[in-house]
What does this fold into?
Amino acid sequence: MKLRVVEGCDECGFAYEDHLPPLVVDEMASLGSRYRQRLHVDPGDEERVALLRRRPNPEVWSALEYACHVRDVLLAQRERLFLALVEDCPSFAPIYREQRVVLAGYAREDPGAVAEHLEVAAALVAAAFRGVDEEGWRRECVYNFPAPAKRSIVWLAAHTLHEGEHHLRDCDRVMNSVGVDG
It folds into this structure.
């Protein structure tokens, strides 16, 4: 079986080698406030809430759905990190991202609450990675997306940041296409 190695993202330009410890941890921590800026809604501004929930087309998530996805990814990555620090080369179960959108009702969530959750999730995952020692960074796991491959904890940290960064761009793109101001 030929495994595809992910070292960067052609779509957004993210290069994993540019986001190494300890810098990657601070970058992860910043995700919460950056999403909060996008999800901010003034009291009573139901029009903005509706726009944050609007999909530009049925196949593309709304800005709110992308934000909910990132929140869940950050929490899942934290648990995966702990598993990799305890078990020898664990393989991670998928989070079923497409199904979660519907099952968790992402589009019905309150943008302000999601922003708060994202700040907590970003702080938690950053704290978890901040606690990794030199030996821990060298530990390995099997990451199953896009195809099963053995990865280091360094890669796991960069990939976690990439998820947040990439979907922040998705939020901006969707917000622009549905008419959400800044």
In short: The helical segments are 23-39, 46-53, 63-86, 97-103, 111-130, 134-137, 153-178.
